Amino acid sequence: MILTGLDIDSKVKTKEIIISPYHEEQVNPNSYNFRLGAMIKVYNSFPLDPKVMNSVEEIIIPEEGYVLQPNRLYLASTEEVMGSNFYAPTFAARSSIARLGLFINLSADLGDIGYIGQWTLQLFTIHPLRIYRGMRIGQIMWWKPQGDIKLYNGKYQGSNGPQQTQIYKDFEKGASKVVFNI
Amino acid sequence: MILTGLDIDSKVKTKEIIISPYHEEQVNPNSYNFRLGAMIKVYNSFPLDPKVMNSVEEIIIPEEGYVLQPNRLYLASTEEVMGSNFYAPTFAARSSIARLGLFINLSADLGDIGYIGQWTLQLFTIHPLRIYRGMRIGQIMWWKPQGDIKLYNGKYQGSNGPQQTQIYKDFEKGASKVVFNI
Amino acid sequence: MILTGLDIDSKVKTKEIIISPYHEEQVNPNSYNFRLGAMIKVYNSFPLDPKVMNSVEEIIIPEEGYVLQPNRLYLASTEEVMGSNFYAPTFAARSSIARLGLFINLSADLGDIGYIGQWTLQLFTIHPLRIYRGMRIGQIMWWKPQGDIKLYNGKYQGSNGPQQTQIYKDFEKGASKVVFNI
To answer: Is Lyase tagged as a keyword (chains A, B, C) (predicted)?
Structure first.
């Protein structure tokens, strides 16, 4: 079952769901609209390789906005800290954002029960597009789980701002020893 | 819970779910295959900016089909009017369509309980690809909600054909006054 | 309801869910991490047309990996055979993969109850990116259905390796006679 907006609101009040900062006017019929944080990271050396730590540069979105260019990946993050130990989250672009030609994730819409932090977004635009910090860019949904819960305890826990991939740690450790490997 | 195809069929008959026109042979094990409408819209001035109304041009897909080009966003719509006051919808490309290199939404797969209308699709192709009006292009799924329902009452309600973004209205009104802001 | 990782593990043991090969360490809080198979297919004649069989070339990913290039679609597959006659699947890229600029499906994240086979992935990268066979690339989720079940019996059943689109069969048969048309 997907939580309705009124149910999300009630679970935020009982702290079963964390959304901070939280504004009731950002509640939708079955999701919550989150905002874009101020920092962006871009990779600056190619080809990218999952086996190594790929270097990044940081950009702060200025007050007047920042124009994203096609054919580039921009790692951004939500302004909000979000998560739950009781419900599983997924997220999507607002349709108003997608209608401008912008992806906010790359076929990667799933979160984990127990992750609490800012969420890294993958911005990818088809046409040049101006974005603004604090704009309502995406929607988080919450789903009731079936079964016993083992909480997320992975490498991105408690993230602050956009996080580049840490997949190279999988290869360092050897895949067979990794328990939670999001 | 996700509704099975047989359950979608039964809810269409009781009018708890609206799909119009509706054909039983488009029912899948846990979704319904919808069709591509005849009209396409493309933006014609860049960079796009969420704060202003971005102008568009209209294209009607001819009988012999229309070749989509890479690196462009095409706004299209479903042929069907679809929605429900009881179940939450999400939608996806048919895998047969994605295997041709075509996206039908840009990380924006969520609808709202209470929206009833044609659905705007965001078409984006990797390679030149011919499309046809009326082709079965995507799949809608329906999810049982948990909690009290406040129906969608937003700016795209009852849409007819593809709708460009109306996100500039958020900025006009000031974000803090917007209640439903999909 | 979405199955938790512990519930996926229990359903794999009762064979209500098939994941083969299966490794407990690839279980996440509410999904299972699957691996990339060794074969890739690419189309080699354009524009693509859903009404005809579009020809492909095969690539085997060598031991040292293979560098995907932007602006191309690569059809790949999971290493695992996966499916269920009892739960509906969806799948996503691992966030660690998406943070490298790689899509693993093109807005097509839904599977069908009753499909059992390897899953075709649509790989699309923003920047040149090295990939490795056997790398944990995506996540499958399982959802409890509501309603009577009619199992998938479509044209991709039991797939082995990446499968190009078979949508041209829709046009041959005439759309109105197709019952299951994923």
So the answer is: no
